[in-house]
Amino acid sequence: MLHDLPRRHFFRSLGGMLGGVALAELSDPLAARKPHFAPTAKNVIFFFQEGGPSHIDLYDPKPTLRKWHGQPLPASMTKDLNFVFVKPDAKVLGSERVFQPHGQSGTEFSDYLPRIGANADSICLVRSMHTEAFNHHPGQSLLFTGATQFGRPTAGAWVSYGLGTESREMPAFVVLSSGKGTSGGSMNWASGFLPSSYAGTVFRSSGEPILYLPNPPGISTGTQRARLDLIRRLNEERQYETGDTATASRIHSYELAFRMQAAAPKFLDFSRESAKTLEDYGVNREPTRPYAVNCLLARRMVERGVRFVMLAHASWDDHQELNRKLKKNCEVTDGPIGALIHDLKERGLLDSTLLVWAGEFGRTPMGQLERVDEDPGRDHHPNCFSIWAAGGGIRGGQVIGKTDELGLRVTDHPVHIHDLQATMLHCLGLDHTRLTHRHMGRDFRLTDVGGKVVRQMLA
Amino acid sequence: MMAPAIFGVAFAAAGLWSLQPVQRPLAPADIDGFIRARLTREGLKPSPEAPKRVLLRRLSLDLVGLPPAPEEMAAFLADTSADAWARQVDRLLRSPHFGEKWGRHWLDQARYADSDGFRSDRFRPHAWRYRQWVIDALNQDMPFDQFTIEQLAGDLLPNATGNQRIATGFHRNTLTNREGGIDPEQFRVEQVIDRTNTTGTVWLGLTVGCAQCHDHKYDPISQRDYYRLFAFFNEADEDHMDAPMPGEWGPHLQARPEYDRKRRELLAAKNVPALQAEWEAGMIEAAAHPGKRLDWDHAFDDLRTDCEDGEKILRTPAAQRTRRQSKILTAYFLGNYGRVITRERKEQLQFDKLAKQLAELDKTLPALSEAPVMRAHARETRLLQRGDYKNPGEAVTAALLPLLPSTGVTRPARLDLARWLVSRDNPLTARVIVNRIWQEYFGRGLVRTAENFGSQGETPTHPELLDWLATEFMDGGWSMKRVHRLIVMSAAYRQSSITRSAVDAGNKLLARQSRLRLSAESIRDSALAASGLLAPDIGGPSVQPEEASGRDRYRRGMYIRQKRTAPHPLMVNFDAPSGYGALCRRNRSNTPLQALNLLNDPAFVEAARALAKRTEGAEFDERLNRMFALTLGRAPDADERAWLRAYLEQQPPAVAWTGVASVLLNLDEFITRE
After folding, report:
1. Shortest Cα–Cα distance, B16 to chain A (Å)
2. How do the residues of chain B divide into helix, strand and coil, expressed in percent and rounded to 5?
3. What are A59-96's pLDDT values in tens digits?
4. In this structure, is residue A272 part of a structural domain?
5. Least-confidence region, from A275-284, B384-393, B532-541
6. Whole domain around residue A55: which residue ranges?
7. Residue B649: inside a domain
8. Are residues A235 and A379 in the same domain?
9. SS3 (DSSP) at A444
10. What is the DSSP code (8-state) at residue B367?
């Protein structure tokens, strides 16, 4: 037993340990930090709908398109627009979706989104988003890092860098993925030039939740703990000898790792969730199960202080067979998201949690047809698209911005990706122009050189 | 100081320190003279020399990225001669592992990776040839001026050798976008921008990229200067060369006639030559008259982005195509013909089956290695207004940056640019490079902002020392090993890294050495070396250790295949770069995922088991000594011995020693260069 050791070492170790804890906390990169000003949200749940969901079929009704259906648009309307696959004279594809007003606010949502629609009065729908990038990788890069060039920190990393975390058992930034996985992969949750402490940790909903989380085969928790105790003791000894605060920080990391090992499986243990909750999210049935598990995990993480949870769902890149694929993705995600909003509200967590639903761009009013024997889809469209936000600090029950009658361009109140980012940070009490990091000779920020808080979105 | 008249532009930053000529200070005459002079001014004393055990471990990790073997340590400890240290320094500088350790440092700056980046992130099977060139060049101590010239313009050297062309792979590490709908010209321009900016950062320590859209806000670089620099790289295109490794030609040529015959037969049996000719004609028609047939339009667009040099090959008459070009286009045809015919016809043809047969056949032909390179390609350059490739402005010709002394060449080509970068009058390159070498040894550069020597960067803590080193570097024939030797021979380098309370917290003045967490690669390599698993082979193609058996499972970290969008977890966790852009300074973060990585990653579990097995058979004390020697390069002290004994007694015997091994591989001391 360790207490059988000579007293001198006990005291020395204890001294090192006490100093170590204090130092470790001082040097903990994830220690909770004060925002720039009083926040309206403490945490973020970001529903990332990878691939560019169709605004025309989900959030922004365009009955006029039916009149144009099957005809090309006049060249004057499409000049200056970039398309990926379709030609500017491709034929218009009218939407088959039926839109209905929801809630007191009467915001219209597609028939594919009944459960999200049911929360219309909590939702601030922005129909006038625009971005520069018309391809996935640069588009996702812009959405998450504020730049189309790769290598910068992502929103979740910036938030963790700015605020740290209140969780004692999980990293600040957690990523949950479903569907085919995002094409951008770790680029969307990387820490870029910030230390890797701020990178998103991928939490998997089946198998081992975090890479290298389980003990090696045949090693019990007790055995692992004994190893950790020994590592700690030897590290403390070394810290005592070298006086290096980085060692204290390492001791801290090992303790957090051990707590993560114990806690992570508990996040997945839904046995104390009510049957009603599980039913409402759709945890125990297909096709909602994977996304429902992620939504429920998101709530449980936010409850335990995880700062930024990203739910990445792929893919909404419907170049072909738009109606069939859109229906499938909506069936998978709409119910769980609706249930999550409702659940957060009931638990009083919605006020402190910022929800954002967004893809990297929208889709063209023109149809895309690659083969004559297929159902059409839509091409990428950066010039206008829809996103929504809800919860902490967001004024629900409103629509911001307008697009033209074809869903081709923004006509009123344009909101750029950088504006969305500035607004997200604002809700968290962070001034986007002050949250900076110096790298390769200049100060970088999430909003690059742009961004304006969208005041109308705020409560 | 020389008058700023030598600078072409009258600018406010003419006084910028880094642009002043490098001047060899008169005195003192070595590193320690400068460091001590500064410490004395601040009323500080340097730290005592670190113990010999710490020193050799430090030196070995710094020069070759591996901990010393116990036998090497014993030999050093037993060597009481006056030049014992110098002998170790020279031994390690001669080690072929030196090129690996310092090659990796250069690869960070070269934004090396084994894949394209972007959405498709295609594997680059031949990228390693450049990495190999770097390792070899560093091991041979290729002078840095030559090292520079070959990488930036090796193809332009008179009678350029294969290796000199392979060196130009430096600028083939740029990302490649194959996303649908991308205008190939847009992406070509983005690549040229990356090459321009990377060159500016790596050699000059200048953020030239800031002048892409407008005149540089802080440094004297106008937008026009930028595009004149850009022009050098705009007149270079990607190319591809057969670069067979020794011994590859013979077997290849022998097998080729038989292979060609079989391939022809397989293709003829499916009527491929005729169908492909028809398809090619259709593609050219679609290119000439878009909008006629949607499916052909899409097929042509995809050929441009998906198929390497697809459009170029298509437009080359079949008889003039190289073997490689023909093969690429036929492979693409077989894979994509189905897009322009009916499903029934597609199923009938079964080209997928044929493609598999051809792939099988390919395996019978001993392959020739290839290499990605650059070659000259004349092209007009225009200033891009607001940096937008669709918005070209005035035409510009290639010119050296006027903020630095000119070499007098009137119409400089890329080769002149390279020579100018390493000219004796260029005040930046030598300073920038010695500073980055220094940074690796002390944890921070004499100029902390190793990537930026412009007015937004920091000023040097020891400006005279920096100039002295830069002079030594240039006057010493640009020998990098000479600079390494100067540094590690210094007393400043050999100081203890133990923190002395309240003395110079950031250790700017170097009153002690720094404890530095090892790089991701070195952590892997050290664990493999300590456990005896390491396959110390130098160079060769990248490996995927988790899927490999045999030696490839235990290669050094720098050989792990680097896929830009899906980097290896160890590399992510320990801050290795993913190759998106030049990186001059790595982070050293400290996270719980690192702990999980070292505790539970099967690769480290395997290393722990191997370490336990390697020391089997010895009695407790001896076994523990051996394990400590292998991992930490020292013996356990009495307390450690007591704690470990207590631990062992509590643990199930089957896993007890593996536990000890795992504990040692997890120690802060193990993953730190002290």
Report:
1. 15
2. 55, 5, 40
3. 999 999 999 999 999 888 888 887 777 878 888 999 99
4. no
5. B384-393
6. 38-205+282-457
7. no
8. no
9. strand
10. P
Q: Do the domain assignments include residue B401?
A: yes
**Same domain assignment for residues A234 and A140:** no
Q: Which residues 431-450 of B are in CB contact (within 8 Å) with A?
A: 449
CB distance A201 to B593 below 8 Å: yes
- Please indicate if any CB of chain B lies within 8 Å of the CB of A230: yes
Nearest partner of A247 among B79, B94, B511, B514, judged by Cα? B514
With 80 as the cut, is the pLDDT of residue B14 above it?
Answer: no
Q: What is the count of residue pairs from A and B with beta carbons less than 8 Å apart?
A: 223
Structural domains counted in chain B: 3
Last residue of a domain, one of B359, B392, B421: B421
From the CA of B473, how many Å to the nearest CA of chain A? 24
* Domain contains B413: yes
Do B239 and B165 share a structural domain?
Answer: yes
Distances (CA, A) of B582 to A20, B440, B480, B542: 36, 16, 20, 20
Q: What's A388's domain CATH number? A: 3.40.720.10
Q: Among residues 451-510 of chain B, which lie with CB inside 8 Å of chain A? A: 451-452, 454, 456-457, 497-501
Selected residues 247-276 of chain A with any CB under 8 Å from a CB in chain B: 247, 249-251, 253-254, 256-258, 260-261
Nearest by CB to B291, from A87, A194, A256: name it: A87
Which chain B residue is nearest to residue A260, measuring alpha carbons? Answer: B592
Across the interface, whether the CB atoms of B646 and A4 are under 8 A apart is answered yes
Q: Do A440 and B207 touch (CB under 8 A)?
A: yes
What's the farthest any 2 CA atoms get from each other in chain A?
89
Chain A environment of B339 (Cβ under 8 Å): 370-371
Residues B199 and B57 in one domain: no
Pair A148, A291 in one domain: yes
Residues 334-373 of A with CB under 8 A from B: 369-373
Scan for tokens 């007293």, then name that residue. A7
How large is the ipTM? 0.88
* Contact criterion met (CB below 8 Å) for B455 and B13: yes
Helix, strand, or coil (residue A327)? helix
Q: Are residues B262 and B361 in the same domain?
A: yes
Q: Number of folded domains in chain A?
A: 2
The pTM is what? 0.83
Based on the domain organization, do A228 and A313 belong to the same domain?
A: no
Q: Which of A191-195, A198-202, B37-41, B433-437 has the lowest mean pLDDT?
A: A191-195
Three-state DSSP state, A337: helix
Are B406 and B495 part of one and the same domain? no
Does residue B658 lie within any of the structural domains?
A: no
Residue B10 half-sphere exposure toward CB, CA atoms < 13 A: 0
Task: Dump pLDDT digits (tens) for B126-182.
Answer: 999 999 999 999 999 999 999 999 999 999 999 999 999 999 999 999 998 877 667
pLDDT of B2: 34
